# Entry
Amino acid sequence: MRKKGLVVCIIAVVIGMAIFLTVGANKKSERSTGYTMIKDEKLKDDVKLPYTNLTSYIATNDFIYVAVCEPGSASIANQIVKIDRTSGAYKSIFHSNLDKAATQGLKNSGDWIIWVDGDDLGGSTKFYAFNEKTNKTLSFGTTSDTVYTDFPEISGDLVVWAEHEQVTKQTKLMTYDLTTQKRKTIRTVSKDKWKVSDYTIRDGVIAYIDKSSEKMMLHVQDTKKKTNKKYPITAKNPDWLTFIDEHTIVYVDNLKQGQFDKNKLMTYSMKDKKESALFADQKTVEVDSLSGFKNDAILTEVNNALHVFAVENGVVTEQPFTQKNNWPLDSVDISYWNHEFYIFENDVDAHIYNLTIDKEL
# Structure
């Protein structure tokens, strides 16, 4: 959903955040103030939260969920706050018991909201799921200090994530059914055959990539039909897999790791078994974000401009897209989820965070 860093393994993300937040976190007097402002199209008035360090956010029809912490905390973020989209009332529904927590990774599907909690160095990681109907929270996933986990994705009641085992040097793709509370291993590969964090799920269909016989292989596994199909692709470092429709996947090929402007935005049609590049007239592009958009489309920021693509007659085609506000893309994070735009702005030095939610951009 959100603008993503090119490496999204939890340990890497948390260490990266710690680099620019730890100084303030360890000196409480320097971070004793700050707030988060929520501007929601459904609310008559803006909501000012007495929390700072907004690390992730998600909204359902009735509520907004944010990962934040109180000013002065030594944590990057340590709790989940739930905001009523009618009254503006808010309350904390989860608080980490870690001294230096990094609560983040909010996602939702149907009645479920999931997130990740761990320490500021990527250890002690746990996954949590909150059900809006029952108002109950459950925890799942591994708690082993020898296993690093990637951020989970969710579709319906099914959650998928990757675990990297430090002792066995293996990576496992895992699923967890939130209704039956059953955990399952989808695939086990050696670490050097796994491309970190490139998996996605839609309507019970999981897509992921690993390296087999020195080739990149796209796997598409239907958990309902119990099928697993494989497609060879030419990408060097594929990441950010996203379904456009049930037959088409888009992903970013990172031609040079660490260089954000050396990418290709690729699509793969499972119907035609054909791989093609968007922006094919350019040798490389800078891809800063990628997310699903409305019905069977994607929203992406490429070369500091927003673009929308959809499948027309079997071809991924750019769609007309206009904005009512001229948001500065170099200083805001724009994403789309559940039929709404999220516009995120922050002043790290002042510890002020602004989140705008609107059906129009």
